[in-house]
């Protein structure tokens, strides 16, 4: 759920680190996971191997970064409308209050 830093735990797999960060957001692209190693090398964490915990525990080294990209799905107008509607309603209330006070 949020970017964070965790102490290295020998033998821990990626799912344990992700769960300790709060898990996946709805906007996470679970098929695009990858592991960035301290030497700059990257390894893809396919959703099948990730979910089945087939990722070798030795793949994660101290200083590694697990990257979970955003889902590249098309723009969702309903989500935008849910975000903007309260802002517009609050703005209209403020404008009406200012007009009422100036009269």
Describe this structure in words.
This protein has three helices and three strands; from the N terminus they run H-E-E-H-E-H. The protein has helices spanning 14-20, 47-51, 77-102, and strands at residues 34-36, 42-44, 65-67. A three-stranded antiparallel β-sheet has the order 2-1-3, covered by helices on one side. The longest helix is centred in the last third of the chain and has 26 residues, at 77-102.
Topology:
Elements: H1 14-20, E1 34-36, E2 42-44, H2 47-51, E3 65-67, H3 77-102
Antiparallel strand pairs: 1-2, 1-3
What's a concise summary of this model?
This protein is mainly alpha-helical and 103 residues long.
Derived structural class: mainly alpha
String of helices and strands: HEEHEH
Main sheet characteristics? 3 strands, antiparallel
Separation of termini? 48 Å
Given the C-alpha coordinates, what overall shape results? Answer: elongated
Let me know the number of strands.
3
Note the total helix count: 3
Rg on CA atoms, Å? 21 Å
Mean pLDDT: 81
Low-confidence spans: pLDDT under 50, at least 5 residues? none
Strand order of the largest sheet: 2-1-3
Strand content: 5-15%
Helix content: 25-40%
What keyword list fits this structure?
3 strands; mainly alpha; 3-stranded antiparallel β-sheet; 3 helices
């Amino acid at each position: 759920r949020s970017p964070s830093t965790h102490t290295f735990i020998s033998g821990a797999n990626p799912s344990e680190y992700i769960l300790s960060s709060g898990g996946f957001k709805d906007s996470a692209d679970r098929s695009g996971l990858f592991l960035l190693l301290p030497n700059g090398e990257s390894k893809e964490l396919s959703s099948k191997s990730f979910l089945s915990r087939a990722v070798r525990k030795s793949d994660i080294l101290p200083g590694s970064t697990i990257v979970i990209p955003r889902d590249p799905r098309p723009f969702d107008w309903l989500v935008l409308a849910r975000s903007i509607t309260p802002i517009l309603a609050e703005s209209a209330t403020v404008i009406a209050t200012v007009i009422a006070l100036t009269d």
